[in-house]
Amino acid sequence: MTQIIKAKSDTLTEAIVASMIGKYVHAPTNIHEVQTPTGATTKANVWFAGIVAGYEKAVIGFNYEDGDFSEQPQTYFNVHLTDGMGYILTTAFELELFELSEEEFNKLIDEKKEEESLVADSNEKIALSNDGDEACNTVLDDTPCR
User: Which of 65, 66, 104, 107 is 20 to 30 A from 118 (CA-CA)?
Assistant: First the structure.
């Protein structure tokens, strides 16, 4: 049964992060500020799910945007999953963490695969012309449609 590890309103602590080791964890909300290719910034949800293998803690006293050292260092936590992926847990924006059972995790993975399959199918349909044998998508590649 799904259990809340950290609600959006809770403060992230090292004890919370350490408690996730060996558990199936789902972070449906993990908001980060990212830079776009044009140099603008936007917010992105870097969600993840998997078995937590371990974590890293980084304490950074340098502000890279200002080029100065801060009076109050920032603490960051990165979780590492058993599939080899690693994710930074946001402390600046919204973060929620849930513990899943193995069955709930497998169901979540199946649902995500289904979503990806539907997106891939719809993209394939867009790329096919009316007769189905030639790509036709003026939005993507200016190929004229017959």
Answer: 104
User: What does the mean pLDDT of the chain come to?
Assistant: 88
In sequence order, which residues have a C-beta less than 8 Å from that of residue 79 and are 6 or more positions away? 17, 20, 25, 52, 54, 55, 86, 87, 89
For the chain, list residues with pLDDT below 70: 125-146
* Cα–Cα distance, 42 to 34 (Å, whole number): 5
Residue 135 falls within a domain, yes or no? no
Contacts 24+ apart (CB under 8 A), 115-122: none
Name the residue with tokens 């790329």.
127
Domain count, the chain: 1
Which residues are CB-contacts of 133 (< 8 A; sequence separation ≥ 6)? none
CA–CA separation, 124 and 64 (whole Å):
43
Is position 117 within any domain? no
pLDDT of residue 66: 85
What's the pLDDT score for residue 40?
Answer: 93
132 domain-assigned: no
In this prediction, residue 131 carries a pLDDT of: 52
Residue 26 placed within a domain: yes
Q: What is the pTM of this model?
A: 0.76
